[in-house]
Amino acid sequence: MKKLNRREFLAATGAVGALGAVTSTSVFNLFREAEAEELPSEQTLKGYCRMCMRDGCCYIATIRNGVLVNTEGNPEHQGNHGTMCGRGKGSILHYYNPYRIKTPMKRTNPEKGFDIDPDWVEISWDEALETAAAKFKEIREKDPRELIFLRGFAIYDVINANNIGSRFSSLFKTPNEIESNGSLCAVHYATCMVTSDMPVTISDQKYARYVVSIGRSAGANLGNANGSCRNIVDAVEKNAFRHVVVDPRCSMEASQGEWVPIVPGQDLSFLFGLTNVMLFENCGYDIPFLKKQTNAPYLLGADGFYHRSADGKPLIWDLADGTAKEFDDKSLKDPAIEGEFSVGGVNVRPSFEWVRDSMREYTPEWAEKLCTVPAAKIREIANDLISYACIGSTIDINGHTFAYRPAALIPNRGVLNHEDGSQIDLACKVINELLGNMDVPGGSVGTSRGARSIKVSKDGVVEPFFEASLGRPFVYPPDHFDLHEFYPHRHSMATSAFKVISEGPEKYGLTITPKAIFNCGGNPINSVSMPEIVAEAFKKVPFVFSFAYHMDEVAMFSDIIVPEDCMIEMESLHSYIGNIENIGHDNMDVNAHMYRNPVPRLYNTRNANDVFIELFDRMGMLADINKDINKKAPVTGKPLDEDYQLDLDKRYTVHEIYDRTMKSAHGDDKGIEWFAVNGLMNQTPDRPEEQLYANWHWNGKVRYQLYFHTQKESGAFLLPKIAEVPHDFMNISLDDLAKYYQGILIWNETDIQKENDYDMFAFNYKIPQGNLRIGHLDQNPWIGDWNEKFNPFYNSITIHSSKAAEKGLAEGDSVVLESAWGKTSGKLHVTELVHPKAIGVPGATGRQVSTLGEVLKNRVHWNSLTCGLPGTMSPVTGAVENTVRVKIYKA
């Protein structure tokens, strides 16, 4: 396989290249040049891009004679260093998109459907907001639980980073906030539990020499300009970096390293095979780390819970004097991680014994039968992880000595969005803990770069937070339409929520019904599973109010739509703390406050933050939002200084709030006018490099969970509660559910692993040209037309050549892909770059409505194939199973 040089690799990923190399002249010629005898006047505006969720690139926009003609990367920003990807360049067409909604509108036809004309009439902003505010206020006064706040990536600058929209649910007091995108990205649970970080763990490619990526992009598949692609190249050139990619298809990263094909959905068997080799064959794991920085030596009774002292503290057996001691006993010298002991007449064993014994039967030969990765390759990878980890070695950074572990196994969405996804993520944590690489140079590190204030639990381990935290109340009848009570660690379960609504909440024990949906940037009809069920639910909700950029699926089912500013029109402020694919030589500690100067509005649109403020005012909640902002300002999340506190009864614009926020953070001379000129404030380096590793802050004084005791505690609380409920909402037996709430990991056959008439395993993956649908990527003609001509993977159904021959299929055939849940169709691409048992569907394309063009409606639509309902998804995280059993045939 041909190796690309540095420039070719970066060009292929989209950081520079065909989609990103559109010149200002070619863009300018796309529109008419203003008629003028003199040279066109020119204005430049600095801003930051949000054409994907990675949020780390700054640009300079050029407006010539009133026409936006170019966007270029801002070379002053330490994230993208003046580069831009094709999506960022496409912000011009996002601005000039002819499908944009230009003014508020209301439905006059009460009947709703994909192909039913809503009979829109234009209305004023005053009518739109007064109607919505009156309905919302009435709901809040009667029962705020009956309002659903639906959020998504589309207006991330409104519902993220402490911006105004992110506060709506808590201030309104509705528990029914649903992330329309979240069920397809349930990646937080294990990281929140083991490292108290989020969203995921990543690799430290500044010091790494060997990284195994599984189910993830290290940046290239996304084509990001924010440093991820550069980090890969730098690691190869500077570190002699080896990258092993375990994936059903050969990605851009894999083409530059080593590709290990695997059957989609069989990732846990591969990981168990690796762990078995490390524990029973190689045995080169980091014993000092396990003894001192994990709960491996904590003694367990026969019930699998910590054996505690009279003071309630977990006990450890000290081999130095043959006695059991509390975990924080200063006389503890040599913790035992093996053996069986008697403490107070009770037989106990270290939790490491439980973890090791749980992996005994999962040999590489066993794993090979399921995942098809040869047993020899599994052994090779396991041994390489141990070898490259350099266990026992250290590295000095600015006078601080760290353990040096330049090897890691890093997972992400592709393997975590499975029915057993929580198990997979935890299995990856076990492997990294065996390497002793947690939060040290070269290893598995958190995306917060050591900035999170880590709490130590009463048991001496990292305190789980966010989705992994304990102590969530169990309420029955439920308060949540997505049945959050039964899934306390879920990220988002949009499909389940709309299934409950479509069938009737009373069927699921709820005593409330949704009276309204407030949609802010979400599109669950098209962006999660089972679009017909979600659409039926929207029909049943009496009032749907939506921010709308274009006439998409949710807009077609709304009662009032208000047009939002497009990305480049929206004045916004953001705090960027680095990309979440990896860290490397040039973006180890990127930290910036970034400001977007808005370009002039084309239509009767508004900044959604200002719309939220006006809605709060009209609902009589102005004091509530102002008080909340005073306590936690946008972007910084810190209280406003006394001089900049908001008057509780005065309505401010978001511009005024941003101005006060920045002055409060940086001084009187650094208000919004300063940011309008400068665009961003680089705050790097704010701290020495050694402080970027959480291990520097912890200094060995906290332990990671190798044995997942808090998960077992969660199950001990939850399972008896579920047993008392007179309904089976989860479509899983209590015995099977209990398997997911143990301290150890075990193999459990999932739905997709069971043989049936669907003989192929379909999976979805990201590509730079179709990374979600943020920024109207699917409508952008530059991207669509170029890829239809030159990229055979784009908008395709991809199959291995051997399987195509077996089924009598050929390149370019029109084919149908059918699952038990739905169908989609498209053109076939035949390749050697997918696993023979797999079918790949790249990117996010396809629509359910024709209001954005028939071309989009006829594209491949992955989400039509997936289920997303209890019994097929993760019973812990609510993750939609993102591998689907399918059959393929000619259309």
Give the CATH topology of the domain at 105-183 and 474-566.
Rossmann fold
Helical stretch tally: 31
Gyration radius, to the nearest Å?
27 Å
Order of strands in the sheet with the most strands?
5-4-23-22-21-6-7
**Biggest sheet record:** 7 strands, mixed
Mean pLDDT: 91
Distance between the termini: 33 Å
CATH architecture label of the domain at 105-183 and 474-566: 3-Layer(aba) Sandwich
The coarse overall form would be: globular
Q: Beta-strand percentage? A: 15-25%
Percent helix, as a range, is 25-40%
Extended strand count: 33
The CATH class name of the domain at 105-183 and 474-566 reads Alpha Beta
Poorly predicted runs are 15-37
Given helix and strand content, the structural type is alpha/beta
Structural account:
With 891 residues, the protein is of the alpha/beta class. Among the domains are: 105-183 and 474-566, Rossmann fold (3-Layer(aba) Sandwich); 752-890, Barwin-like endoglucanases (Beta Barrel). It contains 31 helices and 33 strands. The protein has a seven-stranded mixed sheet with strand order 5-4-23-22-21-6-7, covered by helices on one side. The protein has a six-stranded mixed β-barrel with strand order 28-32-29-31-30-33. A four-stranded parallel sheet has the order 11-10-9-19. Helix 11 (267-282) crosses helix 15, helix 14 crosses helix 15 and helix 22 (608-618) packs across helix 23 (622-631).
Annotate the secondary structure layout.
Elements: H1 6-13, H2 24-30, E1 42-48, E2 58-64, E3 67-73, H3 86-89, H4 91-95, E4 105-106, E5 121-122, H5 125-142, E6 147-151, H6 156-159, H7 168-172, E7 177-179, H8 189-194, E8 201-204, E9 210-214, H9 228-239, E10 242-247, H10 252-255, E11 258-261, H11 267-282, H12 287-293, E12 299-300, E13 315-318, E14 323-326, E15 341-343, E16 346-350, H13 351-358, H14 364-371, H15 375-388, E17 394-397, E18 400-403, E19 407-411, H16 413-416, H17 421-435, E20 444-446, H18 494-503, E21 516-520, H19 524-527, H20 531-540, E22 543-548, H21 553-556, E23 560-563, E24 572-576, E25 582-583, E26 592-596, H22 608-618, H23 622-631, H24 654-666, H25 672-678, E27 680-682, H26 694-698, H27 709-723, H28 734-739, E28 760-765, H29 781-790, E29 796-800, H30 801-806, E30 814-818, E31 823-831, E32 838-842, H31 854-857, E33 883-890
Parallel strand pairs: 6-7, 6-21, 8-25, 9-10, 9-19, 10-11, 21-22, 22-23, 28-32, 29-31
Antiparallel strand pairs: 1-2, 2-3, 4-5, 4-23, 8-20, 12-16, 13-14, 15-16, 17-18, 24-26, 26-27, 28-33, 29-32, 30-31, 30-33
Helix pairs in contact: 5-22, 11-14, 11-15, 11-17, 14-15, 18-20, 22-23
